[in-house]
């Protein structure tokens, strides 16, 4: 075999000089770069394997915020870098990591929960969710979501948004809302995006208009019901622990596969989601009565330091990510509790997403008539 | 086989001869003057010339390199020599997508790392940093050449450098450094990006 043939049979990419001179060398089995003549397309249009290696190395080093912004930066440099970054972020070993806003709707990590903080501003009835970057309860961390409570005559609503300043349903940053009944014991969680293909928006009490500045206008605007939370009546026991049940429409967390990639702005629908929605049912872990201390106790492993009726731990009774759909009642999937006057911790893991976890925790605030 | 025996014999003699050889061990290799390890000088003195191979750049310039330097670093060239498709008397290896300037640099890298592999880590890293002190065009060409020739440690080095060029930079700066003029987003997408991450631009 001639030497020339040995080398020509390999896949290779044009050198920078040749790309700019718009001369196409003979390429066998390699990618042909159509954008010849465009300056600077070498770095934006390089072989996917090489670009993938570069972005993978950035991603692996920047697991934590604020350095993870370097991964987000890669996704904004140009279209090809964005596609590659999303592919790398979407890989199974990255499940649960928070990179883009769209990650807030994706299931949390499988093994160790994501530790978050919720800060309450009583004056403005606003709640802020942060991803904890240090174990300290006083450091805020990376801002994720904000929610504001609006009281109406017969019900209360919490509007959840990506923008801490703009908490209206009409904004681009609107993520979803939580709606409660008069007694404050039954809540419905709504998402601004359909949880699965073919989902129909709920006919809300009030028709709200959404900003028309969506990248994918074919996404139906509206609120989609994605979960329910209810607190049980506690007629006999006063001051006893609450009992709560949540049912959530979760996209099934495939045991090996990655879920599909959503766009950076989080507006594109995921057309490869299964047609039939799956359901996760959670209930709170019952605390034990501590005879000596004369109080109800739950082991929060140091993440909750102030006793409060709001504190809870949720375990799954029905969990589609487990074989057979049966939930593991020993694993705490969501833990919420007070650590300061207006500071709470929230730890969540798969199959819950940050958005769902935040919405469930919000239900714990506010008085519940006939419940305590 | 013969070479191996000679090397072993030399290793035994080494402590004695190293002293008087080290004073004048200078030999041109690959276009640069490089300090040679005593073993190689002794080999040359004894009449076993180091095998050379010819590499031909896209501009048809021929570079003569020690075979074992390239074989040590480039998987592609190593495979070629091993499977016997390279004939030392007549052949030259055509590298149609590596230009002369880049090929010379690649050869420099391989040669330095072969002859200085016993240097301490700091010196090697300093040399590498100086070696990659090139503009983004040059870096791109080196990346392509290292990928083509499958030179693992050079590839890792270049990836590391590029990664450091990206980290901590704003997006507009990254585009400038890598000369990316057309980002490929629609005006609406670009506006949305800037709204969503104002501090990153």
TrEMBL record, chain A:
Transmembrane segments: none annotated. InterPro entries: Tubby-like_C, Tubby_C, Tubby_C_CS. GO terms for biological process: regulation of DNA-templated transcription. Residues 104-367 form the Tubby C-terminal domain. It comes from the Eukaryota. Residues 193-214 are annotated as: Disordered. Pfam families: Tub. Belongs to the TUB family. PANTHER family: TUBBY-LIKE F-BOX PROTEIN 7 (PTHR16517:SF50), TUBBY-RELATED (PTHR16517). This is Tubby-like F-box protein. It comes from Arachis hypogaea (Peanut).
Automatic annotation (TrEMBL), chain B:
It holds the Pfam family Skp1_POZ. Pathway: Protein modification; protein ubiquitination. Gene3D superfamilies: Potassium Channel Kv1.1, Chain A. It comes from the Eukaryota. The keyword Membrane does not apply. Residues 153-198 form the SKP1 component dimerisation domain. Keywords: Ubl conjugation pathway. One of its GO terms (biological process) is protein ubiquitination. Residues 51-114 form the SKP1 component POZ domain. Belongs to the SKP1 family. PANTHER family: SKP1. This is SKP1-like protein 11 isoform X3. It comes from Arachis duranensis. The gene is LOC107491915.
């Amino acid at each position: 075999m001639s030497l020339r043939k040995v080398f020509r049979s390999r896949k290779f990419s044009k050198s920078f000089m040749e790309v700019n001179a718009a001369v196409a060398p003979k390429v066998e089995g390699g990618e042909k770069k159509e954008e010849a003549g465009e300056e600077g397309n070498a770095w934006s249009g390089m072989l996917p394997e090489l670009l993938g290696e570069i972005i993978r190395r950035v991603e692996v080093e920047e697991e934590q915020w604020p350095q993870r912004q370097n991964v987000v930066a890669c996704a904004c440099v140009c279209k090809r870098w964005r596609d590659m970054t999303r592919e790398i972020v979407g890989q199974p070993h990255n499940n649960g990591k928070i990179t883009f806003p769209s990650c807030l709707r994706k299931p949390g990590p499988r093994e160790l929960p994501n530790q978050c903080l919720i800060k309450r501003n009583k004056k403005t009835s606003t709640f802020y969710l942060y991803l904890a970057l240090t174990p300290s309860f006083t450091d805020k961390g990376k801002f994720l979501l904000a929610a504001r409570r609006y009281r109406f005559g017969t019900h209360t609503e919490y509007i959840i948004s990506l923008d801490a300043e703009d908490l209206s349903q009409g904004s681009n940053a609107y993520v979803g809302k939580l709606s409660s009944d008069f007694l404050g014991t039954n809540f419905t969680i709504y998402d601004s995006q359909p949880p699965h293909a073919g989902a129909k928006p709920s006919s809300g009490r009030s028709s709200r208009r959404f900003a028309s500045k969506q990248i994918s206008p074919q996404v139906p605007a509206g609120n989609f019901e994605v979960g329910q939370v209810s607190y049980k009546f506690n007629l006999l026991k006063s001051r006893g622990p609450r009992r709560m049940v949540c049912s959530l429409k979760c996209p099934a967390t495939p045991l090996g596969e990655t879920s599909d990639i959503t766009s950076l702005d989080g507006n594109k629908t995921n057309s490869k989601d299964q047609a039939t929605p799956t359901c996760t049912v959670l209930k709170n872990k019952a605390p034990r009565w501590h005879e000596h201390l004369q109080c109800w106790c739950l082991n929060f492993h140091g993440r909750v330091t102030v006793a409060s009726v709001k504190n809870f731990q949720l375990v799954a009774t029905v969990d589609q990510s487990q074989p057979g759909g049966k939930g593991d009642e020993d694993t705490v999937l969501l833990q919420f509790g007070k650590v300061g006057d207006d500071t709470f911790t929230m730890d969540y893991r798969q199959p819950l997403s940050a958005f769902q976890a935040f919405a469930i925790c919000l239900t714990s605030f506010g008085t519940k008539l006939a419940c305590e | 086989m013969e070479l191996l025996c000679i090397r072993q014999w030399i290793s035994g003699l080494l402590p004695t001869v190293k002293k008087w050889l080290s004073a004048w061990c200078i030999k041109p290799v690959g276009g640069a003057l490089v300090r040679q390890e005593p073993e190689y000088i002794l080999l040359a003195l004894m009449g076993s010339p180091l095998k050379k191979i010819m590499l031909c750049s896209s501009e048809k310039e021929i570079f003569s390199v020690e075979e074992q330097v390239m074989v040590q670093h480039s998987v592609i060239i190593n495979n070629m020599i091993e499977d016997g498709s390279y004939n030392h008397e007549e052949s030259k290896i055509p590298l149609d997508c590596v230009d002369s300037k880049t090929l010379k640099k690649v050869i420099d890298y391989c040669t330095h790392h072969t002859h200085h592999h016993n240097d301490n880590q700091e010196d090697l890293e300093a040399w590498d940093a100086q070696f990659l002190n090139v503009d983004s065009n040059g870096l791109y060409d080196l990346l392509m050449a290292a990928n083509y020739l499958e030179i693992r440690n050079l590839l890792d080095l270049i990836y590391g450098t590029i990664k450091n060029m990206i980290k901590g930079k704003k997006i507009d700066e990254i585009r400038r450094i890598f000369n990316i003029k057309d980002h490929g987003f629609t005006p609406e997408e670009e506006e949305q990006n800037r709204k969503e991450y104002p501090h990153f631009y």
